[in-house]
Amino acid sequence: MTSVAFLGLGLMGTPMAWRLFDAGHELVVWNRSPEKATPLRATGVWVAPTPREAAAAAEVVITMLADPTALAAVTEGPDGVAAGVRKGATVVEMSTVGPSAVRRLRDVLPKGVSLVDSPVLGSTPQAEEGSLQLFVGGDVADVQRHLPLLETFGSPTHVGSLGAGAAASWS
């Protein structure tokens, strides 16, 4: 199974993180409000103190955040994802933040780190059931490599190059 850092345990992120846990992935989580991670911590999931440390521990880093401002706060700066993500890892941005936020994220990530954007259509019940619709943008090889992981959440559809997923969900 894949080592995954999941950042953002809101209404959508929490059930999505549980789906990864239930599927047997090695999981580390981070959330701005650490108490939201208490149920996962009780199962032995590591709750990282910073996004940087969460990213450093994983092959795949998933962000599921409220908006572009939250995405920048979690991914940039000395404790952000970009400061900790390791070469060869992939960041999967699943928030509904629009193409410009995806481009900004690509600009701050180090070389050698792949980026896939995969916002979702659905709500909490679909996140719990694993029946979300995912609009996936990114390099074909990166998308293909991570389809099994994305299928944990529902039905991924590759809609084009990086940013295409965000564009499809943003309109």
Keywords:
171 residues; alpha/beta; 6-stranded parallel beta sheet; 3-stranded mixed beta sheet; 9 helices; globular
Element-level helix/strand string? EHEHEHEHHEHEEHEHEH
Arithmetic mean of pLDDT: 97
The low-confidence parts are none
Q: For the report, how would you describe the main beta sheet?
A: 6 strands, parallel
The general outline is globular
Which percent bin holds the helix content? 25-40%
The CA-CA distance between the termini, in Å, is 34 Å
Based on helices, strands and strand pairing, what is the structural class? alpha/beta
Backbone CA Rg? 14 Å
Give the strand content: 15-25%
Biggest sheet strand line-up: 3-2-1-4-5-6
Q: What is the helix tally? A: 9
DSSP E strands, number: 9
Describe the structure.
The protein is α/β, with parallel strands linked by helices and 171 residues long. 39% of the residues lie in helices and 23% in strands. It has helices at 13-22, 38-41, 51-56, 68-75, 81-84, 99-108, 124-129, 140-150, 164-170; strands at 3-7, 26-30, 46-47, 60-63, 90-93, 114-117, 120-121, 132-137, 154-160. The chain has a six-stranded parallel β-sheet, sandwiched between helices. The chain has a three-stranded mixed β-sheet with strand order 7-8-9.
Summarize the SSE layout with pairings.
Blueprint: E1 3-7, H1 13-22, E2 26-30, H2 38-41, E3 46-47, H3 51-56, E4 60-63, H4 68-75, H5 81-84, E5 90-93, H6 99-108, E6 114-117, E7 120-121, H7 124-129, E8 132-137, H8 140-150, E9 154-160, H9 164-170
Parallel strand pairs: 1-2, 1-4, 2-3, 4-5, 5-6, 8-9
Antiparallel strand pairs: 7-8
Helix pairs in contact: 4-6
